[in-house]
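User: Run a structure prediction on this.
Assistant: Running it now.
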Amino acid sequence: MSLLNLGLQHTAYARKKCETSRIEKMVHQCNSMSMLREKAQQMPAIESEWTEDIKPVIEGITERFKALTLKGRKVVVVDTGDTDDVVLLKELLLEECPDFNDQLRKKSDLKSMPNFRDRLTW
Protein backbone atom coordinates (compact mmCIF):
# COMPACT_ATOMS: atom_id res chain seq x y z
CA MET A 1 0.00 0.00 0.00
CA SER A 2 1.35 3.43 -0.88
CA LEU A 3 2.44 5.91 1.77
CA LEU A 4 -0.38 8.26 0.77
CA ASN A 5 -2.96 5.54 1.25
CA LEU A 6 -1.48 4.62 4.64
CA GLY A 7 -1.68 8.24 5.72
CA LEU A 8 -5.36 8.41 4.95
CA GLN A 9 -6.33 4.91 6.05
CA HIS A 10 -9.31 4.81 8.43
CA THR A 11 -9.98 8.51 8.13
CA ALA A 12 -12.93 10.50 6.95
CA TYR A 13 -13.04 14.25 6.78
CA ALA A 14 -16.00 16.51 6.28
CA ARG A 15 -15.75 20.22 5.85
CA LYS A 16 -17.98 22.53 7.80
CA LYS A 17 -20.78 24.17 5.87
CA CYS A 18 -20.36 27.61 4.38
CA GLU A 19 -21.73 30.40 6.54
CA THR A 20 -23.83 31.77 3.69
CA SER A 21 -26.56 29.31 2.70
CA ARG A 22 -26.59 30.61 -0.88
CA ILE A 23 -22.87 29.89 -1.25
CA GLU A 24 -23.23 26.49 0.43
CA LYS A 25 -25.92 25.58 -2.10
CA MET A 26 -23.65 26.61 -4.99
CA VAL A 27 -20.71 24.65 -3.56
CA HIS A 28 -22.89 21.60 -2.98
CA GLN A 29 -23.95 21.61 -6.65
CA CYS A 30 -20.34 21.36 -7.83
CA ASN A 31 -19.21 17.83 -8.59
CA SER A 32 -15.53 18.63 -9.03
CA MET A 33 -12.88 21.17 -8.11
CA SER A 34 -12.93 22.51 -11.67
CA MET A 35 -16.65 23.23 -11.36
CA LEU A 36 -16.00 24.91 -8.03
CA ARG A 37 -13.24 27.04 -9.60
CA GLU A 38 -15.62 28.11 -12.37
CA LYS A 39 -18.27 29.13 -9.83
CA ALA A 40 -15.64 31.00 -7.81
CA GLN A 41 -14.69 33.01 -10.89
CA GLN A 42 -18.31 34.02 -11.28
CA MET A 43 -18.71 34.79 -7.58
CA PRO A 44 -15.45 35.57 -5.70
CA ALA A 45 -17.09 35.16 -2.26
CA ILE A 46 -17.17 31.41 -2.88
CA GLU A 47 -13.37 31.16 -2.84
CA SER A 48 -12.98 32.96 0.48
CA GLU A 49 -15.70 30.92 2.22
CA TRP A 50 -14.46 27.64 0.74
CA THR A 51 -10.92 28.41 1.86
CA GLU A 52 -12.08 28.96 5.44
CA ASP A 53 -14.34 25.89 5.45
CA ILE A 54 -11.66 23.54 4.16
CA LYS A 55 -8.91 24.68 6.58
CA PRO A 56 -9.77 22.17 9.35
CA VAL A 57 -9.72 19.34 6.80
CA ILE A 58 -6.31 20.40 5.51
CA GLU A 59 -4.98 20.70 9.07
CA GLY A 60 -6.24 17.20 9.92
CA ILE A 61 -4.67 15.62 6.86
CA THR A 62 -1.44 17.55 7.46
CA GLU A 63 -1.21 16.20 11.01
CA ARG A 64 -1.76 12.64 9.76
CA PHE A 65 1.07 12.93 7.27
CA LYS A 66 3.44 14.57 9.76
CA ALA A 67 3.12 11.41 11.86
CA LEU A 68 4.28 9.17 9.00
CA THR A 69 7.80 7.94 8.37
CA LEU A 70 9.34 6.33 5.31
CA LYS A 71 12.49 4.27 5.74
CA GLY A 72 13.03 5.87 9.14
CA ARG A 73 12.67 9.44 7.89
CA LYS A 74 9.73 11.67 8.80
CA VAL A 75 7.47 12.80 5.99
CA VAL A 76 7.94 16.51 5.37
CA VAL A 77 4.72 18.44 4.84
CA VAL A 78 5.09 21.79 3.12
CA ASP A 79 2.47 24.51 3.35
CA THR A 80 0.80 25.39 0.09
CA GLY A 81 0.97 28.83 -1.40
CA ASP A 82 -1.92 31.25 -1.38
CA THR A 83 -3.60 32.83 -4.40
CA ASP A 84 -1.00 35.61 -4.56
CA ASP A 85 1.78 33.02 -4.74
CA VAL A 86 0.03 31.26 -7.61
CA VAL A 87 -0.43 34.53 -9.52
CA LEU A 88 3.25 35.38 -9.02
CA LEU A 89 4.33 31.93 -10.21
CA LYS A 90 2.20 32.26 -13.36
CA GLU A 91 3.70 35.68 -14.09
CA LEU A 92 7.23 34.33 -13.68
CA LEU A 93 6.47 31.33 -15.87
CA LEU A 94 5.10 33.58 -18.60
CA GLU A 95 8.27 35.69 -18.48
CA GLU A 96 10.46 32.61 -18.91
CA CYS A 97 8.13 30.65 -21.20
CA PRO A 98 5.80 32.84 -23.27
CA ASP A 99 3.97 29.75 -24.54
CA PHE A 100 2.94 28.69 -21.01
CA ASN A 101 -0.82 28.14 -20.68
CA ASP A 102 -2.19 27.37 -17.21
CA GLN A 103 -5.46 26.08 -18.69
CA LEU A 104 -3.72 23.04 -20.17
CA ARG A 105 -3.66 20.19 -17.66
CA LYS A 106 -2.53 16.99 -19.39
CA LYS A 107 0.95 15.77 -20.18
CA SER A 108 0.02 15.64 -23.86
CA ASP A 109 -0.66 19.41 -23.68
CA LEU A 110 3.08 20.00 -23.31
CA LYS A 111 3.37 19.58 -27.10
CA SER A 112 1.76 23.01 -27.49
CA MET A 113 4.20 24.56 -24.98
CA PRO A 114 7.70 23.65 -26.20
CA ASN A 115 9.50 26.38 -24.22
CA PHE A 116 7.80 25.29 -21.03
CA ARG A 117 8.41 21.60 -21.78
CA ASP A 118 12.10 22.24 -22.40
CA ARG A 119 12.35 24.21 -19.16
CA LEU A 120 10.88 21.25 -17.24
CA THR A 121 13.50 18.87 -18.61
CA TRP A 122 16.47 21.06 -17.75
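The longest strand covers residues 69-70.
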